[in-house]
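TA notes, week 10

Several of you asked for a full example with nothing omitted. So below is the full record: structure tokens for the whole chain, then the designed sequence directly under it. When grading your own attempts, check the secondary structure regions first.
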């Protein structure tokens, strides 16, 4: 009977290098050669299968079973929630709901600092939590540029802001995926990620204002607003994550921040309105006067997200609905029959993707979209996401082969031996690297989640805490990801200035990752 091995070659070092080859090809193909992600990921999958068959002597039937499990678990729930999230966003755009949301938020205050907090931090956090997939950069950046922000500033601010919400990003799917691939308790991983992010969430609004104004004097005027924005986000996200789960943690946190900041500004209006150098009050007023023929009522505009919130909270908090998570609404089946194989569970009705799809359809009908229009938007969303579908299915299948064959263990043991007791400091950097390359916290967790757990076990550290560091570290890499920068540049009309944007965000990414590494290391002592 074949058994997975960690060192098929005489040397563990050589074995780990061979095992790392698919990941190296992935890094070079995406980061250096700039090849399409779905092509690189599929090629990496093929390379992984060849190495597993030849060097690790993994039977062909087990390789095939690994791929089948990767495809099915990659589609459900990972791809399903991505499709549903993007569909919800597309419906809201098509009906004019997004125009209403954007213009309403832009008109709350003429102060540029408050606009940056509300649009880039709070509203951007909500978009990342509810939809993800670049919307948290594209929409706030285009809106800020549209109301008079320097396009470079708009892009940079939104990239820096789109960090802490990324860890929980599209309805908790990065966290759910991490718990699955690393085979760790979901609520334990969720709580650890929330705890690691608290201080960074609170600090981020202050950093955004300093980034915008480059003045501590200007920061003084909005200390209260920054504190309210950050503390409410951190508090409500942490409470929700610890006691409910990852699906709505960032949604509740960002909405609490959004509502709290608006209320605070209304109760304590700013005495000194900060505008850009040379900008007059009249110019500012004209800039934020956004009008659209497609705007609809505010309640209708938010309806898909309101329904989603109600459905997810009901599933998690109402005991009489727990039956929806059991058969026939859930299935369990064995897909991989080799060593280490376990049944895979599929939640058909209570998975966030299904709940979001239901919310999008009902919300779209409230927004006066026809069933034919909703179906056409769904088909367009599928077509839009075809490259992503190929990427995710390939990368999950690749991770399954590497895990079942023992290749991940080879790399983990080598890393543990090399880094030793300081590995917790390095763990977030690995997560950041994964997001820099793939542009996705979810993909980073798929790539390195099992690896982080294995290294933690090798060095005697808490695997939940170290695996969580991959997700939080991945949020740092998001701001310098080529995909994110391309989205920000496109949204602000700066298609030829990607290098300038990258150079401006690189320092913030490095500081964030180093501080996060220090936190993870200190707590793990």
């Amino acid at each position: 009977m074949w058994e997975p091995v960690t060192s098929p070659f005489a040397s563990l070092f050589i074995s780990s290098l061979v095992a790392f080859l698919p990941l190296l090809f992935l890094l070079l193909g995406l980061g250096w050669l700039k090849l399409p992600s779905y092509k690189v990921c599929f090629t990496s999958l093929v390379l992984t299968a060849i190495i597993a068959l030849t060097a690790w002597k993994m039977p062909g039937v087990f390789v095939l079973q690994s791929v089948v499990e990767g495809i099915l678990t990659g589609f459900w729930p990972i791809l399903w929630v991505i499709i549903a999230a993007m569909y919800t966003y597309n419906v809201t755009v098509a009906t004019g709901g997004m125009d209403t949301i954007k213009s309403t938020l832009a008109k709350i205050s003429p102060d540029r600092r408050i606009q940056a907090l509300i649009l880039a931090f709070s509203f951007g956090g909500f978009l990342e939590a509810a939809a993800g997939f670049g919307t948290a950069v594209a929409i706030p950046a285009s809106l800020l540029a549209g109301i008079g922000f320097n396009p470079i500033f708009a892009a940079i601010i939104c990239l820096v802001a789109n960090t802490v919400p990324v860890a929980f990003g599209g309805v908790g799917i990065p966290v759910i995926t991490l718990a699955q691939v690393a085979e760790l308790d979901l609520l334990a991983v969720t709580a650890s990620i929330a705890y690691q992010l608290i201080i960074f969430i609170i600090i981020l609004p202050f950093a955004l204002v300093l980034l915008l104004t480059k003045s501590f004097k200007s920061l003084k005027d909005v200390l209260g607003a920054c504190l309210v924005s950050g503390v409410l986000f951190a508090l409500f996200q942490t409470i929700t994550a610890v006691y409910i789960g990852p699906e709505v943690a960032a949604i509740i946190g960002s909405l609490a921040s959004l509502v709290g900041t608006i209320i605070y500004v209304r109760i304590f209006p700013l005495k000194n309105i900060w505008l850009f150098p040379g900008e007059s009050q009249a110019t500012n007023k004209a800039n934020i006067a956004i009008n659209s023929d497609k705007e609809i009522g505010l309640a209708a505009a938010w309806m898909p997200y309101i329904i989603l919130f109600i459905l997810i909270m009901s599933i998690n908090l109402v005991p009489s609905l727990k039956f929806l998570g059991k058969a026939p609404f859930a299935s369990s089946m064995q897909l991989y029959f080799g060593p280490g194989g376990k049944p895979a569970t599929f939640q058909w009705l209570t998975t966030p993707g299904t709940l979001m799809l239901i919310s999008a359809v009902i919300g779209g009908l409230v927004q006066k979209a026809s069933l034919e229009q909703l179906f056409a938007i769904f088909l367009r969303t599928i077509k839009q996401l075809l490259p992503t579908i190929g990427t995710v299915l390939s990368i999950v299948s690749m991770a399954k082969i590497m895990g079942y064959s023992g290749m991940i263990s080879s790399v983990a043991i080598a890393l543990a031996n090399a880094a030793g007791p300081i590995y917790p400091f390095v763990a977030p950097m690995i997560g950041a690297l994964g997001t820099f390359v793939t542009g996705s916290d979810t993909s980073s967790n798929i790539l390195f989640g099992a690896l982080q757990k294995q290294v933690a076990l090798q060095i005697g550290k808490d695997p939940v805490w170290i695996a969580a560091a991959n997700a939080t570290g991945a949020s740092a890499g998001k701001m310098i990801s080529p995909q994110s920068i391309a989205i920000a540049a496109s949204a602000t009309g700066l298609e030829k200035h990607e290098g300038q944007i990258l150079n401006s965000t690189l320092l913030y990414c490095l500081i964030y990752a180093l501080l996060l590494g220090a936190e993870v290391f200190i707590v793990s002592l």
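The mean pLDDT is 87. Use that as a sanity check on your answer.
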